[in-house]
């Protein structure tokens, strides 16, 4: 019931996102058929009439919202004879694979790094983790991607620099590493700070004074509360992975949703851009709800009404 109430409470947020995105797309200069220079004015008018673009804006909005409520995102304006749902269905497996592996890599490396840094506070390991984290944070993906492609793809020729072949992991290595690096750094810093704060709590000092081994204190009493900042970050981090994948997919030539989104924005493909926005917004809302629900498992003191 709690999950259902939260999902229902998220519907107004999704409605606002759809409304704002719809009107912002229409405010942008240009249209989906402006590049049809070889077409006459009559042909252009016929195209606009076929896609309903000749109607008043409020009628277009109501028709689009009605279609979304029925699960219909409409046809693509630029990819002829293909619906937005079909294009999303083609790109989603690639983007989902990239995002899942990037988050798994970020968690599996960032959490142990943060643990090591906290357990070796103010020692060489702590300073090394902090320095590497800062470096990974300040370097944007559009800088890291060409560097990795140049080193591992061009000079060493270990991995392909672009393209996609389903079932071939080598095409995912560079994009996943590029996408996960800043999130490894953020998670490591959050884990370090969270564990240092928990280890200084009075109840853990009491446990140490009673002679409980440090390993037992860490794994039984400190780890779950220390993970709370990391779990809090997973919602925004997932959003960051999604938006970051737009750039990464474009750089590495991956046929994911991000590539369709960029091309759709350039071509003023209103329905395609709106479909991707709705999909991303829905995923972010759902994942944030799951993060909130995970709090109760990590810290029994937290209760959701």
Comma- or semicolon-separated keywords:
mainly alpha; 0% strand; 12 helices; MetI-like fold; 305 residues
Summarize the structure.
The protein is an all-alpha fold.
SSE layout and pairings?
Blueprint: H1 2-27, H2 41-50, H3 57-69, H4 84-119, H5 124-138, H6 141-155, H7 170-199, H8 202-209, H9 214-226, H10 228-252, H11 257-266, H12 270-298
Helix pairs in contact: 1-12, 4-5, 4-7, 4-10, 4-11, 4-12, 5-7, 6-7, 6-10, 7-9, 7-10, 10-11, 10-12, 11-12
Task: Tell me what you see in this structure.
It is a single chain. With 305 residues, the chain is mainly alpha-helical. The chain folds into 2 domains: 2-69, no CATH class; 87-298, MetI-like (MetI-like fold, Orthogonal Bundle). Helices cover 75% and strands 0% of the residues. The protein contains 12 helices and no strands. Helix 4 packs across helix 10 (228-252), helix 10 crosses helix 11 (257-266) and helix 11 packs across helix 12 (270-298). The relative contact order is 0.15.
Q: From N to C, what is the helix and strand string? A: HHHHHHHHHHHH
Q: Extract low-pLDDT stretches.
A: none
Count up the domains.
2
User: How can the largest sheet be summarized?
Assistant: none
In the CATH scheme, what's the topology name of the largest domain?
A: MetI-like fold
């Amino acid at each position: 019931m709690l999950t259902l109430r939260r999902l229902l409470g998220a519907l107004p947020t999704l409605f606002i996102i759809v409304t704002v995105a719809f009107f912002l797309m229409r405010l942008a200069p240009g249209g989906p058929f402006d590049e049809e220079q070889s077409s006459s004015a009559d042909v252009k008018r016929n195209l606009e009439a076929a896609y309903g673009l000749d109607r008043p804006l409020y009628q277009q909005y109501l028709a689009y919202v009605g279609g979304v409520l029925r699960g219909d995102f409409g046809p693509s304006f630029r990819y002829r004879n293909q619906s937005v749902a079909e294009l999303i269905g083609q790109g989603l497996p690639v983007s989902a694979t990239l995002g899942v592996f990037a988050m798994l890599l970020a968690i599996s490396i960032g959490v142990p790094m943060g643990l090591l840094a906290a357990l070796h506070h103010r020692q060489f390991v702590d300073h090394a983790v902090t320095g590497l984290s800062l470096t990974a944070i300040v370097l944007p993906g559009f800088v890291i991607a060409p560097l990795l492609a140049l080193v591992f793809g061009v000079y060493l020729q270990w991995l392909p620099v672009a393209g996609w072949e389903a079932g071939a992991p080598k095409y995912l290595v560079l994009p996943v590493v590029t996408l996960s690096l800043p999130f490894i750094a953020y998670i490591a810093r959050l884990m370090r700070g969270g564990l240092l704060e928990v280890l200084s709590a009075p109840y853990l000092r009491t446990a140490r004074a009673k002679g409980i081994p440090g390993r037992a204190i860490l794994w039984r009493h400190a780890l779950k509360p220390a993970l709370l900042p990391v779990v809090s970050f997973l919602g925004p981090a997932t959003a960051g992975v999604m938006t970051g994948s737009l750039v990464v997919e474009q750089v590495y030539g991956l046929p994911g949703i991000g590539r369709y989104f960029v091309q759709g924005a350039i071509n003023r493909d209103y329905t395609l851009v709106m479909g991707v926005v709705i999909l991303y917004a829905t995923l972010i809302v759902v994942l944030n709800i799951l993060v909130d629900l995970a709090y109760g498992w990590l810290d029994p003191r937290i209760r959701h009404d």
